Fold these 2 entries.
Entry 1:
Amino acid sequence: MKMRKKLLSMLLTGAMVLSMGGMTVMAEEVDMNEDGTINNPEAVEVADDELSFWSLFTGGDGEWFGKIVDDYNATSPTNPIKRITLVWADYYTKLQTAVATGNGPDIGVSHVSKLFELADTGVVEPITDQLDELGVDLSECFSQESIDSVTIDGDIYAIPLDTHSEVMYYNLDLLEQAGVTEDDVKGIQSAEDFEAICAKVKEALPEDNSVISLQTNGDDPFRIWYAVYFQMGGTDFVNDGATECTLDVEKARAAMEWVKSLYDNGYILEGIDDQTAFFQSGKAAFCFAGTWVTGNLEATDGLNFNNTTFPLLFGDTPYCWSDSHTLTIPVNADRTDEETLEAVKFIVSASVDGGITWAGSGQIPSALKANESDEYKAMKGYNVVDELKYSKYAPLASNYYGGMKSDLITALDGYWQNMDDIDTASDNVTAAIEDNLD
Amino acid sequence: MNSMKKRQRRATITALIFILPFFILFTIFTIYPVIQGVWVSLNKWNLMGRQKFIGLENYVKMFNDAKFWTMLKNTCFFTLVTSPLIVVVSLVFALLANRPVRYKKFLRIAYYVPGVLSVSVGSFIAQYTFAPYRGLVNGILTSLGLVTTATEPQWFQRPELAWAVVVIMTVWWTCGFPMLMYLSALQDISPELMEAASVDGANARQKLFRITLPLLKPTIYLVTMLQIIASFKVFGQIRLITGGGPGNSTKSLVMYIYEAAFDKNKMGYSAAMSYALFIIIAICVMIQMKLQKGDE
């Protein structure tokens, strides 16, 4: 009896120890969401000869990029690309933690506004040597502005894929109803012009419609403020090296007051929580949104709309908020030098040869080859190609993306939402920059 | 005598062998990170680069960080409002569900069911319920003619209303489990006590206040303590429903800690704030336990 008990306890202990060991060697299952995004990208099986690519492109963008990858893999490269799409909101957190723990991918995506931080913290590596080895001359493929945007301390850290700007969409049916023509809209040369059109449209619209579809929080009002600030002649937010705040406080404040006047004058219906959806419902005459919503808007039944560049409201240059997707090579000790070279080969090809495919998503392709093609000129996205010239990219500060930008948005939200008066809010804007210097 | 000692020792060894696997895992995954966390809080570290020892600088920064205090105030406000609400509402639910009525089972399930939802599902339900122009609440108010499109309440634009949504969702979502605890405690109360009270001529109210509630005291203490701890750690529903807005008015301390760590890569600072929160919760629990002891 005693013997048995002993045996049993030993067996149980053994089973526990075994199951513990088993847990660690058992491969983790891939956890996929309904839209095909993956929650645990490090668990996706990647064949020995494949290069893993962590994508942040979902929805329509995801399909276009999928096509670029398929086209590349169809050329039978030495190392085919395995595309793994992450949930967008988690992308950078997962990328940074995965690289830190040695589980990162071979190829990644970065916004230009995040690139400086990723390079600064050692998440991505420079590719200058590989480009030389491959004999790629970037100046033949991209504009100097694009190349500058991915150059840090003389090294190339990424291949630019596109520029995406905050542009203006307008509902042709509602404008016609108000007696406003497309030429009027494209001819806006000042804030007064724009406000006059807004006033005219407001007269003609029913109560539950909105002249402009705009949220009172988040990225979109921030981007409008950003554009207006630079149009008013605002200076860069920080100096070289991001050690000092160089914001023009007066202009920042004036830009805030102007954007706020759009809400206060009743051009924006209160409580719009999804401005693209609201515009899609056909109840708003204007919508300021990113180039990437073009595809979604085109797919909306019964929405008769067009797009144009961000209007000139102040000064003489219609600066706009822009960011840019770039393709990067994250630090990964498991990757051989040959594989790194292949990975660089892919990102160059994806941007240069895939550029015209990518234009289908509505973003402005960076590759000159795509940019100047007739195929692109026939697309709706081409209407805003001029934004390439007027883009204001993010400041080069390591704490920009998660820190400065999100603090700026919170500071501005407080003002749009009547939580803070202009004095407090503009102090908060300055603090948002000062708190996040390098 | 000797054999007994021997047997005892054997029992101890057997027990140790059983405890060991858990103890090893607990050490690796809980005790070690707790110690490591203290170390991280004394360093400047962005996850990728090297840790740089800076002593108590993170803690000094915390005391001077106005945002830290705002978030702490928000969190205390949330705790002060939701904890008593949950303690009382779930008690009322339990009393209702404990009556000998025919739909008793239905009531128990109905009160408990929201608790099985994940925080994201619960938060989305709250968001849709209170959404302007198309949400359930504003829809009902509009169709009753109480508000118009122009005057309907903007639940997520005003701090008071945003708090109301978060609190309502939290109470609705959390009440199930404390209710179960109350229910089981209620069932431990001997029916003979109630009978005896009835024979002595006590009315329903007297029975509730003189018998039921005093006997529930230990459970009430337990629920209160668990709720205070949970409330201080609030994160999911606020992040998903209001995102901390409008402005920073509903942002909780844990959200701020999360942002410091994973948006701003300030691991040291976020560890320091985590320990501040830990100490606050520990003090609350100690006060609570003292009160309970004094009471007994």
Entry 2:
Amino acid sequence: MAQKILIVEDDKFLRELIARKLTQENFTISEAVDGEGGLKKIKEEKPDLVLLDLILPGIDGFEVLAKVKDDPALASIPVIILSNLGQREDVEKGMKLGAVDYLVKAHFTPNEIIEKVKTALK
Amino acid sequence: MAPKLNKIKNQTESPEEETPKKEFEELRGTREALLNILEDVEEARKEAEEERDKTLAIIENFPEGLLFFGGENELSSINPKARDFFNLEPENILGKDIGALRKISSLQPLMEILGEELEVYQKELKIREGLVLEVSTIAITSAEEKVGALVILRDVTREKIIERLKTEFVSIAAHQLRTPLSAIKWTLRMILDGDLGEIQQEQRKFLEGTYGSNERMIKLINDLLNVTRIEEGRFLYDIKSQDIIDIVKKVIDSLKQIAKRKRVKFSFKIPKKEIPQVEVDSEKISLAIQNLVDNAIHYTKSGGEVKVSLSYSKKEKQILFSVKDTGIGIPKEQQRRVFTRFFRAANAIRAETEGTGLGLFIAKNIVEAHGGKIWFESVENKGTTFYFTLRA
């Protein structure tokens, strides 16, 4: 069965681009546009991996990540942060909260992101 | 009255009184001269007083806080502005020396900065919420002898607020700009990778150019972010003991392709002798090295050469990094401005349209934040060598 990736991203176009790329690579896609929606889908759908933006309407990505890692039922789901916040403080905070990787959107191509997703799922 | 006067006149004119008359004249002359001198002295005194009052008035009304310490490092005067900063009464502090002043709680942070030597240049001191001072001292000399030190306290609170707002603005703007640039990058990449179907050779060429421009914009935003962080004073973040050779090697490896593409001979001479570890923020020092080497490659024409080397001076306990190129050089009259931000030399702009003018500014700030020095030697059309040192 295809592995399911949840994309939590508020920018519609970016979401579509990355969804298209992941679909091409035979992943199943689920999408959320804000922190609350993302958290709900993580609980309901238990995806194989989450691509998580940080600046989101409502609760931000850091908080979503903290809640996921706090919940024993969800803590094992790998989360890759995909954000345009790129200062070292942000990266360290994200990694400390339990993200498996931290990607600055503008510094990675779609192919490189897919590679990171595949590595995290191994 | 007239007859009386006449009488005197008559008397003085009498022949037997010739000598007294002469003496009288002399006396009168002396008296006049004395009076003149007195008048001059009086005038000079008045002028001096006026001058003193003027100086005092300037000091009293000066918009910056002033403290004057005499030769024995005792506080000999303080203006109202300075007293306001610390809520002080002059009678409690005048004449006291550094040691005694340090015991006054409101003055303690300032005295801490001033130290024993009273030698400070533009140090910031936060007195309380809403009051930040910039402290500088000037040694006052008279006939080449030090007679005291003047401490100048400038209220920079407003500047600090504006600086912070500006930094926040640039930081948010930079983050916001990255999102659409990511979308452009991803779309172009997917088209170029054939994800949306085959594209013609000419279409590819144009899209690759667009992709390159977009990458430059992403780099510019990274540079802007780095500059704002420099100005926030929180640029060095993670100081650890590091192997500098490793750091340089990594940067060199990342730039080899560019040098190859430009057909510039590119080498790194690894020192034979062992180099001690250095205390650096490796990400930042890598950025400084990258900016220097990247410039060297970019501003050297095909067939030229870029040589990177490292050495260690045991005596001076420092590492010397250098990158030597056979490039376009920096015009002599523009060398002074090379490290200022957004500055690009005229021949650099001609040779290479891209470039943000921030690379060397960032490099200089990083090196200096590590306590190192950065400089260069350059001859136009011959080449440039950049150097920096790090304590080790």
